[in-house]
Amino acid sequence: MHITDDGIKLNIKLDMPKDNPSKCPICVIIHGFTGHMEERHITAVQEAMNELGLATLRVDMYGHGSSEGEFKNHTLYKWLSNGMAVIDYVKTLDFVTDIYLCGHSQGGLTAMMLAGMEKEKIKALLPLSPALVILDGARKGDLLGQPFDPENIPDKLVSWDGRELNGNYIKAAQTLHVEDAVKKFDKPVLIVHGDKDEAVPVEYSIDIAKQYKNCRLELIPGDTHCYDNDLPKVIEVVKDFMQGMLN
User: Fold this and answer.
1) Does residue 159 lie in a domain region?
2) What is the pLDDT along the chain (247 residues), one digit of tens a residue?
């Protein structure tokens, strides 16, 4: 199943609750940088949402998973455009009552930006290990483990797994200010972050949580960026938050 954003096919997957209700809320779930919709932490959230009676829509973003576009050419601009296209699609589904938005890592950062842009459509926001370090690193000149001159951005960078990334990724990231989106979103927010995250320092989530008007921050002791050590605790927290939203 796919939708199209500016001529690019995006792979999406809709999962319904077991009782297949005629009306229910939906949660859009966005993976992270180099990720895809079938990662274990993404499917764990999807399954939890389905158990609670929500539909879920997972999406492979531009240049990732089974979607079109080359990884090296993806930017946060393209991901934000993808996100808006997904939300527009969800709005056409006649069974949907409310829309929730969840994203992991770069998907969490994207979700935070989208929530500010689409604040009237999103009922609550769930960033998981949001990669705010991307914007900071793009401005300071240190990203993906590779230092660079932020005033003279190279044509390409090489990420930690050896994949190339166009310098346009950095140029786009330098222009984005998540604080603006945070100020616009006054509905409930749950931020989850492992306190031993090796990719995104937990301090980023601690700081941004203070800027939201209605935010619950949950730090997972001893856990990593992709929740290798205590994914069940992450799911427990997500379920508790969502049960509060649904009651």
Assistant:
1) no
2) 999 999 999 999 999 999 888 999 999 999 999 999 999 999 999 999 999 999 999 999 999 999 999 999 999 999 999 999 999 999 999 999 999 999 999 999 999 999 999 999 999 999 999 999 999 999 999 987 788 999 999 999 887 778 899 999 999 999 999 999 999 999 999 999 999 999 999 999 999 999 999 999 999 999 999 999 999 999 999 999 999 999 8
- 8 Å CB contact between 161 and 35: no
How many CB atoms lie under 10 A from the CB of residue 130? Answer: 28
What residues are paired with 5 via a beta bridge?
8
Question: Encoding tokens for residue 120?
Answer: 């009237």
CATH code for the domain of 36: 3.40.50.1820
Count of structural domains within the chain: 1
Strands (E), 195-242: 215-220
Q: 3, 6, 63: which is closest to 28 by C-alpha?
A: 3
Query: pTM for the complete prediction?
Result: 0.97
